[in-house]
Structure prediction request, 242 residues.
Amino acid sequence: MILMEGVQKYYGDFHALKNIDFQVRRGEIVVVCGPSGSGKSTLIRCINRLEEIDEGRIEVDGMDLYAKGTDINKIRAEAGMVFQHFNLFPHLTILENITIAQTKVKGVPKKSAEEKAMALLERVGLAHKAHDYPGALSGGQKQRVAIARTLAMEPKVILFDEPTSALDPEMIGGVLDVMRSLAKENYTIVCVTHEMGFAREVGDRIVFMDEGEIIEEDSPEEFFQRPKSERAKKFLKEILTH
Prediction:
């Protein structure tokens, strides 16, 4: 479903991604972890061209992201992103936040878009907030709305960029519950997170990054119990003892 080959990314002189080769199978859940600044968010932002790469190639479901004439809106509809800071439109109601891309990008009639939005809000436990504005919601509620908005586009891939890191601890559970339910539905998911319990429970594969490189990748069981690199051992020791 996702193929990255020889991907290089620079910010000026800073080498953010170094020769990344990365594949995700259809229906697979891959958790990307590593210390801050290791390139995790840059990696997944390249998968829907929120960041441009300097070398290499990326395909999503056989579609070359950098081929001439590639429709970037189509890429972003098929590789939906859930951001750390929600990125909801503050001047639109919750319902409008979920319907706007359906109507503008996919041409879905307004009534159908609203019906789908309400069903998704029901699913994430927020149907009663449909006519509120984002400013009236807690961080955890905003993130669940952001997930509903992504699902409304029926993406083939869902990219989560540290979806719980901006939340108060008591808000995290509701968001992880929604993500757990998606994990059972055969979505292809790439998730950058520091929630190691979630990674262990839900991930099919763990990818560990440091300094712009993929250092190791393995099953959750192998990664957490028998990490191979010294860097991963140090990371796990730090994160699991805090």
About this structure: The longest strand covers residues 14-24. Strands lie at 2-11, 14-24, 29-33, 55-60, 63-64, 79-82, 157-161, 188-192, 205-210, 213-218. The first helix runs from residue 40 to 47.
